[in-house]
Amino acid sequence: MFHYKTSLKIAWKPCIEAKLTAQTKGMNIIALHGGLDTSRSRSFMEILERAALDGFVLLAEGRVPAVEAVLNVLEDSPNFNCGFGAVLNMDGEVELDASICDGETSRFAAVAAIRDVRRPISVARRLMEETSQVILAGDGALKFARKHGFPKDNCISEEQLDAWRKARESLARGEKPAQNLYTGLAYHGDTVGCVVWDGKGLTAASSTGGCSLKLPGRVGDTPSLGGGVYATKLSAVVCTGIGESFVETLTAKFVDEKIAGGAHPQQAVELALRRLAELKGAEGGILAVDAQGRIGSAFNAGQFPVVVMEEGRVRQGFEPVNLRRALFAH
């Protein structure tokens, strides 16, 4: 879509910039992604669309209830790497991360490496609204969840358990496991994220099981403010990929800084992915919306399903920009 120079600068054609500016529609936007290398088959996209609609129904109550509703749908589905059906760590356990960042109030809350809770995004919301704490992890996050009525829930799906067993067998033979790092399976679903603009402010939220076969206690970019999630009065940004690369480069914050400097969100996310590839050689997917309701989405992996809903209607034909060939061609 854009012509890249060898530096991080992008030469935008005026006609393309005008077209992107003209994409601003409606007075509210809910945009969400299903993660890297997640199927874009109709059955997967329908779940994303239903999640967006659930968020739209609650948007009148606020941006935070809306993003929570969106991610709850995906956390309940075994098709995505969050909540039930998330990837297993090296010990065969599901440990989840989730976070919410509201740009208008500058509030942020996250839970990390939490076990036996199906909807960690709801725990993060409770932490944001009822305490002054910002991040709870491990046993502390679990105790907080139980205290506030979140029941014990086994998040291990049979499909992920079978994949974990096969991976451990491969490792025992000295072989590299065949499964996808993002999805835990040969081909399935990854970290999810959502950005919301209601015409007044911006909110970002993300939920994940992390990367397959991670070390117990590992925390990725989802609870890292500025790494995998960020929201200000100017933008809301969510990222997905191998979290360490996003944390070490503060990629979500980089996107916001570019938007603050006048870049269109599409330009900002593409710059961020090029920077990520140059600094870390890493794959990723980024979704952003700004205070004008303009959207940016791009990735450099296999697939990256994105749904955009404006005023309760799904924007037909929307697809994120695929930069894989441009960034990794040899």
TrEMBL record:
<dbReference type="Pfam" id="PF01112">
    <property type="entry name" value="Asparaginase_2"/>
</dbReference>
<dbReference type="GO" id="GO:0016811">
    <property type="term" value="F:hydrolase activity, acting on carbon-nitrogen (but not peptide) bonds, in linear amides"/>
</dbReference>
<protein>
    <submittedName>
        <fullName>Isoaspartyl peptidase</fullName>
        <ecNumber>3.4.19.5</ecNumber>
    </submittedName>
</protein>
<keyword id="KW-0378">Hydrolase</keyword>
<feature type="active site" description="Nucleophile">
    <location>
        <position position="191"/>
    </location>
</feature>
<dbReference type="InterPro" id="IPR029055">
    <property type="entry name" value="Ntn_hydrolases_N"/>
</dbReference>
<feature type="binding site">
    <location>
        <begin position="218"/>
        <end position="221"/>
    </location>
    <ligand>
        <name>substrate</name>
    </ligand>
</feature>
<dbReference type="InterPro" id="IPR000246">
    <property type="entry name" value="Peptidase_T2"/>
</dbReference>
<dbReference type="GO" id="GO:0008798">
    <property type="term" value="F:beta-aspartyl-peptidase activity"/>
</dbReference>
<feature type="site" description="Cleavage; by autolysis">
    <location>
        <begin position="190"/>
        <end position="191"/>
    </location>
</feature>
<feature type="binding site">
    <location>
        <begin position="240"/>
        <end position="243"/>
    </location>
    <ligand>
        <name>substrate</name>
    </ligand>
</feature>
<dbReference type="GO" id="GO:0005737">
    <property type="term" value="C:cytoplasm"/>
</dbReference>
